[in-house]
Amino acid sequence: VQLQASGGGLVQAGGSLRLSCAASERIQNRYTIGWFRQAPGKEREFVAAIRYSAATYYADSLKGRFTVSRDNAKNTVYLQMNGLKPEDTAVYYCAADSRIILSSISEPNEYDYWGQGTLVTVSS
């Protein structure tokens, strides 16, 4: 599967953005899609994921501000980000895997397919 992330940009603190991850093939009942981010000089970190079953998972620190959802007809996963903070500034990536187990859902090395990333910059 090929993934294309989009929707990044420059936003003021407190603002919102919605990122999109478009897949080249059907993702419903097939792939878990994860969102990760990487800030300059930092390791890639887990943001959120939506399993093939549509169950959703979030990094504890982001619960309540970020929401992951899926449009099966468009083979697209969204990441709605509200109440953005300067520390949310990073390149955001989406990733997919068809065999990932729940205990590994936050591990970037467990995902086989990656999109190119989209930059989110939050100004103070």
Summarize the topology.
Blueprint: E1 3-6, E2 9-12, E3 17-23, E4 32-38, E5 45-50, E6 56-58, E7 66-71, E8 76-81, E9 90-97, E10 113-114, E11 118-123
Parallel strand pairs: 2-11
Antiparallel strand pairs: 1-3, 3-8, 4-5, 4-9, 5-6, 7-8, 9-10, 9-11
Give the SSE order as H and E letters.
EEEEEEEEEEE
Distance between the termini: 37 Å
**Strand elements, count:** 11
Structural class: mainly beta
Give a short account of the largest sheet.
7 strands, mixed
Question: What would the principal axes of the Cα set say about the shape?
Answer: globular
* Beta-strand percentage range: over 45%
User: Roughly what is the average pLDDT, rounded to an integer?
Assistant: 96
C-alpha Rg, in Å? Answer: 13 Å
Structure characterization notes:
The chain is mainly beta and 124 residues long. 0% of the residues lie in helices and 48% in strands. The protein has no helices and eleven strands. Strands 2, 4, 5, 6, 9, 10 and 11 form a seven-stranded mixed sheet that branches. A four-stranded antiparallel sheet has the order 1-3-8-7, with no helix packed on it. The protein is globular. It starts with a strand and ends with a strand.
